Amino acid sequence: MSRVLIVVDVQNDFCPGGALAVPDGDAVVPVINALARRFDNVVLTQDWHPGRHISFASSHPGKAPFDVIDLPYGPQVLWPDHCIQATRGAAFHASLDLPQAQVIVRKGFRASVDSYSGFMEADRVTPTGLGAYVQERGLTEAFVVGLATDFCVAWTAMDARRLGLAVTVVEDACRGIDAPTVPGGTLAKAWADMAAAGVARISSSQV
Ligand code: VGL
Ligand code: ZN
User: Fold this and answer.
1) pTM, 2 dp
2) Which domains are present in the chain?
3) pLDDT the model gives residue 1
4) Helix boundaries (H) for the chain
5) Residues lying with their CB under 5 A of ligand 2, a single-atom ion
């Protein structure tokens, strides 16, 4: 099988001190750097929002981060402003050391639609191009790592399954937000949804 490592959103705003900091988010960096040495194919995703974005609570008067609203494409969790195009917060973590990465897929750059997945925007019809890339390159097995486990990692992993790839999430190379927007929190739900979709879950020592 031809393997690809998909490194999701290891950006300053998702690390401690960032606008949407994932607890312990920067702990994934050394794990991912080491893991990536064992892959011929490495792809990065980068959350890349315009200054006003539909996923920002600041775009909806009276709403606060972690409120959920209904949009034409479904429910949308609202977030603090984050990963604004070409800001320091949107940059990759300075210690992420992946010179071998072949492709950087930016997502969430349309003001009126969010994109957790590296493959398909939240409207579920607009592709990013990553699906065509993996198919044209003959990549059949995806390992997904990065931030955040329960949003962009999970959505990317499940979309990779929909494309027919074998998919594994490397748990110690991910960290989650665990938003209280669903009973039991979003992290447990994401792991359950991924398991139901046939996504495998391992630690980096098992890769
Ligand atoms: C993400 C929330 C909003 C993520 C991106 O990378 O998981 N989460 N934008
Ligand atoms: Zn975002």
Assistant:
1) 0.98
2) 3-48+92-206 (3.40.50.850)
3) 67
4) 28-36, 130-136, 154-162, 186-196
5) 47, 108
